[in-house]
């Protein structure tokens, strides 16, 4: 097996705005937010929740796009660790001000629409608006809501900020990361990293390795079987900021080039474990509109720009959003330890609450998602208290094929109903081979109550969970038998936004 790269380096290389930085002796667990505020005294970026929820800490990360320019994305600085900046460009609200001292159009629009009152949320909103502006602006209310869903404001009622988003979209201005500068930064970033060896920080406070290939990753995990794999950090970041854990060593997979692709082959998608939700979204939306819509509702744009589908599976959460949908689609995952790979059905990966079929040193390499066969209808429903940026109470995913009024294929998977994401096999058996009518629907609903004994927690009571799960079967029935009836808050076309 390929050995870990012998060449390593111990400095984090990135651009802070347009300034090249090389940092040594940084605690690998220091968050970008703490570095900005405590080390750099750049206090424009705020701390609200320190858990990725409020958006006050929103910054933009730029990465070479492989085509000679840069790609920019918002993330929550409060849950990103400093070494993950390696090879990237960090932009904060301080970088928006043009050299002539005027305001950037998104800032000017916020002033003109009274989009700022107490001001605490403002820098975060400005960064999300700036991202929208970089992407060409938006007039559509749904798209603006989507871009701002990860930013909370308790003062303005959001109306003026949405107005600012519309207003700024129409204004042209000199871009602080104008095209010419972008290609220069992309070239310099690539030169800083290429051939420079793997980032390996070995400090008394903790170790951090950032392999650049899956062979290096596999070898490192064999050498450090107790290491914590870090992908987007949207779970792991909170272990540090909320649980005050020390993690040692950390092996970061965000720089593993061959885990960052989505490939289509033989009627299935193969999604590398390092692929973020944002990068998997379009492809998953093409597999089934409802999977795309589900992904669009995961966390916020900042969370989707960092979090991965692989992390959503590997964390084993009973309320992760993608596993039930992927189980209903018949997804499989590739697990790898050293040079040995095995493929398991996703539903078999989840053994019981907190326990997955993953050995020490083994990692999720990819996820294989088959396209639904001809005639199969796929539906997924997320139930949460808020539409955006909320944790699921119950999630149902169904793949159903009806032929001549009979159910000939049916896979049903749920989240939030048991200690793991799970298929509802009694419910499936109650329907397969039966006429698809109200009597078989009732039988399937009754069978569901034998599949699961859900628990009560702060999100939902066990009675609510069961009732809503049964009602989602009714929704499936309506959508497959009377599609003219409106059943959705947001149209299916949103899946592709
Ligand atoms: C504000 C906020 C909102 C959220 N909203 C949602 C939501 O709506 N729906 C939802 O489902 N989740 C949500 N989450 C949870 C989280 O975003 C997801 O679970 C996400 O998919 C985790 O992926 P990650 O790449 O960030 O994983 P990380 O945090 O990097 O890792 C998560 C776990 O998986 C392990 N791991 C990661 N990759 C691998 C791998 N390749 N092999 C082996 N182990 C691995 C890590 O060691 C860790 O144990 C939210 C989180 C936050 C902070
Ligand atoms: S401080 Fe709230 S999202 Fe980062
Ligand atoms: S202006 Fe006060 S929180 Fe938004």
Automatic annotation (TrEMBL):
Domain of life: Bacteria
InterPro entries, alphabetized: 2Fe-2S-bd (IPR002888), 2Fe-2S-bd_dom_sf (IPR036884), 2Fe-2S_ferredoxin-like_sf (IPR036010), 2Fe-2S_ferredoxin-type (IPR001041), 2Fe2S_fd_BS (IPR006058), Ald_Oxase/xanthine_DH-like (IPR016208), Beta-grasp_dom_sf (IPR012675), CO_DH_flav_C (IPR005107)
Domain FAD-binding PCMH-type: 201-374
GO molecular function, one term: FAD binding
Entry keyword set: FAD, Flavoprotein, Iron, Metal-binding, Oxidoreductase
Protein's name in the database: Xanthine dehydrogenase small subunit
Organism: Thalassospira xiamenensis M-5 = DSM 17429
Lineage: Bacteria, Pseudomonadati, Pseudomonadota, Alphaproteobacteria, Rhodospirillales
